[in-house]
Write a structure and sequence with these properties.
By secondary structure, the protein is of the alpha/beta class. The protein has eight helices and 25 strands.
């Protein structure tokens, strides 16, 4: 029987430090064509690439910075755009820094380690303004700025690893298909990085391995997702919980507990292995504070929380509302929310998708909070939200493009964007969290 092994081994390098600092740009494979051009980069794209122009079309250049002049090999030439591979920097930005990670440029996790952190924050705001202008047709979005992350490194409370053909664990590469094996990750919290450094893995049926930690509680967990139904045997030489999720969705606890705990402010949340929880605990505390401010509850309101997860926002707001109803499609997250809400008399969790549950609800709800997946809410869900007559809708988004598209549907439904703010939930990457308030 295939057997996963988790044994302690000494990492070969300190976290975030390579034995030899490598350049910011590395070629993972030969480009499809070798045309080399010199470009002036003027802006940043939604996915984090710098943008220049060549032969009348935009060219997306990863690992470059707006304001730089660079040499680029054209590797993809389409009718309306092209993609380039950075061949050299002719005139460097003063914000260009040496990335500390030896995998940067091959690993697909980070896009901006080569950019000074303060500049990263400004680029996030540029992307938000551009997406809202082009997709939401709002020329001057009322963005109040961006909340920097409390820690720009060592912040992630969970990571997802895959197995390479050799069996080594790592992140999906920039090509989107191969795996870059790693021994340490500079954006992983120390408790998660400790798990990365301690694992030796041998299991043929691995689909994905999630390493989690309660950064405020010290708890650690390994979640193994397999391609089949067979429950693996286990040799574990570390004080971490270990759970197995089979292809059919059967969850088995092999060691420790099926969940860990994390704390935001004074509230502790139970989080099961497959459940969603914000990846940056310290910044999630700031996120909760923003949602509380934007909800502006006075104590007598009915609050609806869609895509509620383990009850992060619902329970933080319950003490300020008359009634709170949370809706969550994941059975694990819904069960966590029910456990987390035990003893909160005005809190109810309903398991099911927003599209299934919303038609069964009667309004009005004075305030509605939504925290949808990257795909957003969509027109049908927004029409149901409008039927419930919210005075204010607080939209928490991890993708500005889908927030912008949903803003169009919200405007059509009679809800107007009043204010918004960004939070850097994912430093060193092009992803950003945004909270927007819409009013009727």
């Amino acid at each position: 029987m295939s057997r996963p092994n988790a044994k302690t081994r000494r990492p070969q390098q300190r976290k975030g430090q390579a034995e030899q600092v490598r350049p910011a740009v590395r070629a993972a494979r030969e480009p499809a064509r070798t045309d080399e051009v010199e470009l002036e980069l003027t802006q940043v794209g939604h996915s984090g690439e710098a943008i220049g122009r060549w032969q009348g079309k935009v060219v997306f250049v990863p690992y470059a910075i707006p304001g730089e002049r660079v040499r680029v090999r054209i590797v993809e030439d389409r009718k309306d755009y092209a993609r380039g591979q950075l061949a050299g920097v002719v005139s460097a930005s003063p914000d260009r820094v040496e990335p500390p990670c030896p995998y940067f440029g091959r690993c697909g996790g980070c896009q901006w380690q080569h950019i000074a952190y303060e500049r990263q924050l400004g680029l996030h705001l540029d992307v938000i303004a551009d997406q809202m202008r082009r997709l939401a047709h709002i020329a001057d979005a009322p963005c109040e700025g961006i909340v920097p992350a409390p820690q720009a490194w060592a912040y992630r409370n969970n990571v997802q690893l895959h197995a390479s053909p050799s069996g080594a664990l790592g992140y999906v590469a920039t090509d989107g298909s191969s795996v870059v094996s790693i021994e340490s990750c500079p954006i992983a919290h120390d408790l998660v990085d400790e798990l990365i450094a301690a694992l030796e893995w041998q299991y043929a049926g691995l689909r994905r391995l999630t390493l989690r930690a309660g950064t405020a509680t010290g708890e650690q967990m390994i979640l193994m997702e397999s391609e089949g139904e067979e429950t693996p045997e286990l040799e574990l030489e570390m004080a971490a919980s270990f759970v197995h999720l089979s292809a059919s969705g059967r969850l088995t606890t092999l060691a420790g507990s099926p969940f860990l705990h994390e704390r935001l402010h004074e509230r502790t949340y139970r989080v099961s292995g497959p459940s969603f929880f914000q990846v940056n605990t310290a910044q999630a505390e700031n996120l909760v504070e923003v949602v509380q401010e934007y909800a502006a509850l006075q104590g007598g309101e009915r609050l609806l929380d869609l895509f509620s997860g383990v009850g992060t926002f619902s329970l933080a707001l319950a003490g300020r509302a008359a009634e709170v109803i949370a809706v969550e499609s994941s059975p694990w997250s819904a069960a966590d929310a029910e456990a987390n809400g035990e003893g909160v008399g005005n809190f109810t969790i309903l398991e099911g998708s927003a599209g299934e549950v919303l038609p069964r609800l009667d309004g009005p709800f004075q305030a509605i909070v939504v925290d949808p997946p990257r795909s957003g809410c969509g027109k049908e869900v927004i029409e149901e939200i409008a039927r419930l007559q919210p005075e204010r809708l607080i939209y928490v988004s991890c993708d500005t493009a889908t927030l912008a598209r949903d803003s169009v549907y919200l405007h059509q439904a009679g809800l107007r964007l009043e204010r918004m703010v960004a939070l850097d939930m994912f430093p060193q990457t092009a992803h950003v969290e945004t909270v927007a308030r819409f009013i009727s």
